[in-house]
Structures are given as structure tokens and as C-alpha cells.
Amino acid sequence: MPNTLNPLELIARRWxxxxxxxxxxxxxxxxxxxxxxxxxxxxxxxxxxLGCSTWxxxxxxxxxxxxxxxINGLIxxxxxxxxxxxxxxxGLFIIAARARHPRRRSLTRLGWAQFWLVMSNAVIGxxxxxxxxxxxxxxxxxxxxxxxxxxxxxxxxxxxxxxEEPRGLVPRPARQLARLLVAATGALTVIGTVVTGTGPHAGxxxxxxxxxxxxxxxxxxHVDFVYIVVGLSVALWFTLRAVKAPAAPRRTLLExxxxxxxxxxxxYVQYFMGLPEIVIGLHMLGSALVWICVLRVCLSLRDRGxxxxxxxxxxxxxxxxxxxxxxPASALSR
Length: 334
Prior knowledge:
Radius of gyration: 22 Å
Structural class: mainly alpha
Strand content: under 5%
Distance between the termini: 38 Å
Number of helices: 10
Strand order of the largest sheet: 1-2
């Protein structure tokens, strides 16, 4: 029986996207991941977390919201529909990465990793509704969205560089300091979800179970980690200057400083104004932007060679080479 080509192979034989198109598709996944974080926050802040009373339907008898559910049903259902847009963008990146020659399996694996993260987070979102906005599930929902954003940023970076072994652009202690900055920012994000689980914005107007911790104490711990992140960022700046790091990493670190400063202003405004919903929404956007900048700083400290713009052979891979392609996996590339 002759071998049959799967749809991705057929597309790869008929379409050759440019390297710039693949990079733009990767950037689009980053943008959509940020949008999902912000709109997810809008659902909670508008008290629409239970706008749809069940999952995967919106009500036991209707797939879509009914007129009686009002604006909350529309907001919750709209956020669910946005998942399909996210899937389409991730799908475009997977197809573009697969069709691009020379073949880069690292990019397709990153694309499939994003796909499975989207699917898993959709399930977590459903569990969130079915458990009546359990704060621990709500926190995991946000952290899964952050994981998606992480892989999207890595995909964007990998779409702009080659496949050589990573080579450090600065001495090892500087790279370790950058990794420590990533870890501290990750801890800051996790603590932020705990603040959400203990704070006043539960996601629904009805009484919703909260994490049994003192909200003010957790908030203070969150602020303490902000100072740690700021301190590590400043230390990394002076370290990069001392080792005469290339201009690109230092410029990326300056972008991080700008995001941290903006996020600090938003944080103080929301505190002194009594946690208004719109300012908290901006704080969630700032959190996503800070995370992106921190990841970019860490990734800028190593080099994997130039991106190969054209296929040296000028031809598509053979059927035998295509058959050697492994099944889609969620493993991240180095």
C-alpha cells in the first residue's frame, strides 16, 4: 500500500513561507497569549466567572448564553470563544513552522507544545466553572496561561535564531544571575495568584470560597518579591556593564526596567484607590509584559548562530526524510 501524506506534509510541499512570516506567526502567538491573560482577568473582575453555569455548554440546555443570563453570560461565553481564535493562531504557527525549509523540528515541537497547553487550559477552565470558581483551580488556570505565554515567547525567540549549540555571550555567573531573576519573577507570579485567591475579587457576585490566608499579609509578601525582582534586575544591569555585554542584552534589560516601573506605578495606584477593577486589569497586563521582558533578557544572553534563511539544497525533503518525523510532542527545545 502506498504511503499517504498527512495534511501538514501536503501543505509543506505546496507552500514555502518566508522566515519573516514564521517569525510574525510566532509573535502572533505571544500577542494572543497576552490577550487570553487579560480577558481571563476581565471575566473575573466583571464577576462573570459563573456567567455560564456549566461546561462545556453554557447552560445545561444551551450551548450559548441566553438572554436571561445578561452581560455576564456574554462575557464568559466570549472568553470561551476566544480560545478558538487562539487555536487558529497557534495552528497557523504550527503549519508555517512545518512548511518552512530547511526543516526545524524544534519549532514544530514548540508549536505543538502551545497547542496542548491551550487544550489543557480549556479543560482547567471547565473545571473552574464546575467547581464554582475554586480559588486553587482559578490559580492553576492563570499559571497554565502563563506557561503558554512562556512557550510562545520561546517560540518567537527560536524563530529568529539558528540551531547551533547555545553559546553564552557573557560569563556564566551573569547567566546564572539572569536565571535567578527568572525564578524570582516566576515566584512573584505564583504569589500573585495567591493574592487573587484571597482578595476581594472572587469572580462572581455570589459567595465564593477563598483561600484561607490573610490577604494583607500575602499582599505584603508579594510586594517583598517585587523588591527582590527589582534588586536582581539592578544587579544584573551592573553585572552586564562590568563584563561588557553586547548592546542587545543591555537594551532588553532597559525594556524590563520600563515595564517594572510602569507595573510599580499601577500597583500603587490600585492599592491607594481601593482595588478598582480597571486598574487591576492593567496590573495583569503589566504582569504579562514583565514576564515577557524577563524571559527575553535571559534568552538574550546566549547565541545559537544566524537563522538559515534559505534551504541550501533548494528542494523539499524526501518522502523518506518526512517519514522520519517524530509524532507531535509537547517537549520544549533547549
